[in-house]
Amino acid sequence: MHDLQVAREPLDQVLVAYDRVVVDPARRRRAQTTLNDAVQGHLQSENDLVRLVEVLYFSGRQPLLAKHHLLFPAYRINEEYFLNAAVPCGPLVPRRPRVDNRSWMVLGKRIGFPIGVPASVLTANAQWIHYFSRNGFNVLTYKTVRSRAHEPSPPPNWVFLPRVVEPLPLGPDIHEVVAEQSDWVDVGRTDVSTANSFGVPSSDPEYWEPDLEESLNVLHDDQILIVSVMGDDYDRTARPAALADDFAFVAKRAERAGAEFIELNLSCPNSLVPGHGVKPPMCLDVDLTREVVEAVRARADPGTRIIAKLSYLPMEQLERLVTAIGPLVDAFSGINTLQSQVTDGRGQATFPGRLLAGISGIAIRNYALDFVTNLARLRLETGLRYEIIGMGGVTDVDSFTALYDAGAVAVQSANGVFANPFLAWECVASIGWTLPLSPPLTDESLREEAKGLIVALVSAYESLGPYTVANGMPIPPSQTLDLLTELVRAGRLRVEETGSGFRYRHSGSP
Q: DSSP letter at 354?
């Protein structure tokens, strides 16, 4: 509070700014009490500080919070999109968190601790990429770009869901949640959920291409930047080829700017079609999705890694899609937000004109874990070779670990990082030295299935070396080597030392 006084800013101006956003009389009274206590030096507990953060955040005093390295949300939900995109407002850690002499392999490149931020308003341009790079996020995805400029949906665009504090149950129904524009969740809580409706805005390629080049230049050597792209049928021809061509065109523009990793946004649940409301994610249409992926793969440089970003799909739908496009992509990522009905306390749409919006955070944690687990199972059952980038419901170390253990080579977070920009630092400090260098195979049924495949592979030959076996398996090599050791201990395989190294043979046991 001393900083406010030095700036000769009366405290009543802080309250006026706060009252412009927050209409709840009880919160306004509490804000005034909090400021008065701060001036008189009566703030004693962590809860007092949390209340002060809320007041300063909604009154637009984020620079003051950042100056003192206090935790607060990285995006100003009470401001419009372009003002937020102009400059990051969140706090910085004193030093970029790293794990010396350890690296993880993601999409063919060795990186630092495998946490990142997905394509979102938090990765809108080079300034935001630099901000999260400095905060220790090593797998960053540049916000979705298009072949033409596309305006964001009108504000508000992002709200907290303080009434949703547990994972929602899996199911086909559209969830209904309640949120007010000025709702708040105290900083430091990990049971945080939010809803957003941005409409996938994009600048024109003449702007985003040079900005993408700048974004690539701000990265450290142990970080990667994926570029999310989206196509559209702007002339409303209703021809799938027109959509596929536009996807491929945007991907080539991203390559021209230096992108080596292209993510196809097949998943957004909140694109608005004038006169028709919110359209469903494209990945629900297998044939259309395959045509798009084929067009991009055919025109992309051979060395470009292609990632398909999906929304949540039940196992049966996911299997059809993975079978159709799995041979064409290098990785799958997901999930995006979950399309839900978001209304205020009066039953009106929280986002005017858009009853449906995307929810994220702890609300979708079960969906994300189910998605990653199913992708890992399908990889084993189909023999396809793809990596998994998991996201959804990651708000703390444990939820990061859950997706990693389920099979994700990297884990990204938007909602969790928005609420806690220090999440990478917390993960590195907690598990940086113990996290396996590739995801372990923790599901017991998958382990047994993989063991059966290894035994069948070895049995088809007189003997095989460990790396030959690993190359023949659709799982990370470290998982195969781990299972080989178990199979020898169980007597299902035997190992022999030869002049060229160790060889595995079938033992004759089942």
A: B
Nearest to 498 by CA among 455, 465, 467: 465
Question: What phi, psi does 135 have (nearest 5°)?
Answer: -85, 5
Cβ neighbour number for residue 408 with a 10 Å cutoff:
31
Q: Where are the alpha helices (DSSP H) in 70-124?
A: 81-86
Is-cis flag, bond preceding 335, omega within 30? yes
Helix, strand, or coil here: 182?
A: coil
pTM of the predicted model, to two decimals? 0.94
What is the model's pLDDT at position 2? 52
Q: What DSSP letter does each residue of 7-69 carry, written as one string?
A: TT--HHHHHHHHHHH---HHHHHHHHHHHHHHHTT---SHHHHHHHHHHHHHTT-HHHHHHTT
pLDDT, averaged across the chain: 92
CATH number of 444-506: 1.10.10.10
**What's the pLDDT band for 6 if we cut at 50, 70, 90?**
very low
Using the predicted structure, report yes or no on whether residue 299 has a pLDDT greater than 90.
yes
pLDDT, tens digit (0-9, with 9 covering 90-100), for 92-111:
999 999 999 999 999 999 99
81-147+205-268+280-336+364-431 and 444-506 agree in CATH topology: no
